[in-house]
Amino acid sequence: MAAVLALSAVGLSLTFGVMRVVNVAHGEFFMLGAVLAWVVAQAVPSAPLGFVAALILCPLVVGAVAALADTAILKRLNYDPEATIVATIGISYILQQGALSFFGPDARAVEAPFSLRLQFPWFGYSGYKLFVVIAAGLVLLAVWLFMTRSRAGLVMRATQVDRNTARAFGINVDRVYAGTFALGAALAAVAAVLIVPIQQAHYLMGHDPLLLSFIVVIIGGLGSIRGTLIAALLIGLSDGIISMFFTPTLAKIVATLAVALVLVFRPQGLFGARA
């Protein structure tokens, strides 16, 4: 849960950190990735091949949808903070109702690519769940390397620091923003494809990832990838443990209280920079 949450939250953190856009539609991009994973799995007869195809195709499709939404809507609003919040709310409803119309109201299961179970003397553990943790870690490592070692990552970070100066140096800010919005949505789709063999695909499944991703980003610090990863680990583990021994509702209440405490005593988040 922590690994998948980290993937989704890093996508949201990138969108805010570079673009200063609060993407309320982020949970629906997650949902869209899960629904498309089911569609791909149905189209490919072999479960392992269907999963691999979904892991490749779904983030690309969701990223393309996000880039189109950015170009067609957010760019025209000049990325005004208040206007983009309203716009992304509208995008989320469009995606949700579109999934309801074409996918239907029922939850659909996606078969895991393998059913290996690791059996230890004291307990057994799903091999696929271990694979999810490793895969999420590798994707997060790739994102970190992309942001810190590649020229595209340098351009994104330059745009984050000062959009006008970056434009003066010849950087196509509109293209950077579209790419960032697409990357954030694609990371949410990767998280959805990884989790959908464990949780069924459903047109309303974007609510919890959106809530938890916002909680993680606020606690970790807006725009801080390191803070997002650490907060995702804390929130993901606490959510899973509290949900197991008590109720999922109590887990969400505890996470919300944690956000309230952070906003009161450290508004910039645990690892965010002071304004």
Helix content range of the residues, please? over 70%
Strand arrangement within the widest β-sheet reads 1-2
Count of DSSP H/I helices: 11
Number of strands: 2
Summarize this structure as a short list of keywords or feature phrases:
275 residues; mainly alpha; two-stranded antiparallel sheet; 11 helices; 2 strands; 74% helix; globular
Brief sketch in words of this structure:
The chain has helices at residues 2-19, 26-43, 47-74, 81-103, 127-149, 151-161, 163-168, 173-195, 207-220, 225-245, 248-265, and strands at residues 117-119, 124-126.
Question: How does this structure look, described?
Answer:
With 275 residues, the chain is an all-alpha fold. It has helices at 2-19, 26-43, 47-74, 81-103, 127-149, 151-161, 163-168, 173-195, 207-220, 225-245, 248-265, and strands at 117-119, 124-126. The protein has one domain (2-115, 123-204). It is built from 11 helices and 2 strands, in the order ααααββααααααα. It has a two-stranded antiparallel ribbon with strand order 1-2. The chain starts with a helix and ends in a 10-residue tail after the last helix. The model has no long low-confidence stretch (mean pLDDT 86).
Write the layout of secondary structure elements.
Elements: H1 2-19, H2 26-43, H3 47-74, H4 81-103, E1 117-119, E2 124-126, H5 127-149, H6 151-161, H7 163-168, H8 173-195, H9 207-220, H10 225-245, H11 248-265
Antiparallel strand pairs: 1-2
Helix pairs in contact: 1-5, 1-8, 1-9, 1-10, 2-3, 2-4, 2-8, 2-9, 3-8, 5-6, 9-10, 9-11, 10-11
